[in-house]
Structure formats: structure tokens, C-alpha cells
């Protein structure tokens, strides 16, 4: 009996958006207007690439970025939840599917001692170039019209489950924990025995309830959370069953 927990990262594991938090490293902790206005919907990763160039040009080094990123607070109860999962890995496989990047997520999880909780992290690949600038690339290409150009979380989830089946691993239940609009596509992929756990008051919860009002509700169960301790309580019940 094994459960798959799928986590978003920004505003789910951490209580902020890692990509906007990095702006604290910029001169006067803000970006110039022309850079801010250069964002086009669906092309966030390219925009962040320009932000990283700007930081690099202004002498912001890797150490300063790392120090800044590791001050981001976790969401309420998340430290307890991740501690619980770390102690119960025989029941839970845990993955992250995020529109952040590998460098930020790695720094934050390692600084808090939680990197071993997660079996895999699917996010935009990032690295420091020879000039010391942080660079980021799109996670993959896909054909989903609903998702941003760089990442369809449904595709990631489906491919992961297929790969696990090839290895002989199947899951009793999938639990999807997220907050954003781009978490709706993978939630629509979940079956009736699975659970979507949208964060209270965030876009994902609103989109799921809108679907229910339009009489096309999601197939899975829905449990809303505001503290990750609520998620932990539910998982404790699953394990006892």
C-alpha cells in the first residue's frame, strides 16, 4: 500500500513565490519598470531569465542569492508535515512539480534538511553560467493549450506514473497538494479514489469550485487546507486504514 503525494512548491511548500522573492537581491529591492513590463503571459521562464541577467549585471553573486532564498518561510504546518513524511517514507512517495527552478528548490530544501523527503523534483532546470549568472530553461515542450509554454503538470504526472508502473510500482491513491491555476490541469487527471488538496483562498480552490458550479466537477475528492497540519491529520488516517 503506497500513496503518491504530489506537491507544488511556491505558496504550497513555501509561503511565498520564490521567483519574486529573489527580487530582494536587486538594487533597492526592485526591478526597473521596462524589465517588469517585459513579461508576456505563458512565458514566465523567459522573463525570469531576463531578471537573472539583470541581477548578474548588478553584481549579485550566488552566495547572496542563496542567503536570500533560504530566508523564505515555509507555509504554516509544512515543517511538521514534511517531518512526518520523512519518518513514514515506507507509505509515501513524494514528488514536487513546480514552475520554480532546480537551484531555488534545492537550496531551500537542503537548508531545511528536507531534500530526502522527496523522491523526485520536476521543475525548470537552472544553473550558474561561467560568468556567474543564474540561467534557467523551460522544463519541457508540450501540446497542452491550458498550461504555460514551459510546463504542463498533467504531462509530468502522467509520465511519472507510467514510469513507476514499468518499475512495478502502482499507487493506492494520489494526493495532489497545490494552490495555483497551473495545478488545475493535473487535478483534472486524477481519478475518483484520488484527492486534490487546494490551499484555501488561492486560485486552484476557486477554479475547482467554479467547475462544480458549472456542473462539471473534478472526478477526485477535494479537501481544502489552510495549515499543512490538516494535510498531516488526513494522511495519518490514510496510513491507519
TrEMBL record:
Pfam families: Put_Phosphatase (PF06888). InterPro entries: HAD-like_sf (IPR036412), HAD_hydro_PyrdxlP_Pase-like (IPR006384), HAD_sf (IPR023214), Pase_PHOSPHO-typ (IPR016965). The keyword Lipid biosynthesis does not apply. Keywords: Hydrolase, Magnesium, Metal-binding. This is PHOP2 phosphatase. The keyword Magnesium applies. Its cofactor is Mg(2+). Gene3D superfamilies: HAD superfamily/HAD-like. Mg(2+) binds at residues 8, 10, 179. Substrate binds at residues 19, 99. The active site is at 8 (nucleophile), 10 (proton donor). Belongs to the HAD-like hydrolase superfamily. PHOSPHO family. GO terms for molecular function: metal ion binding; phosphatase activity.
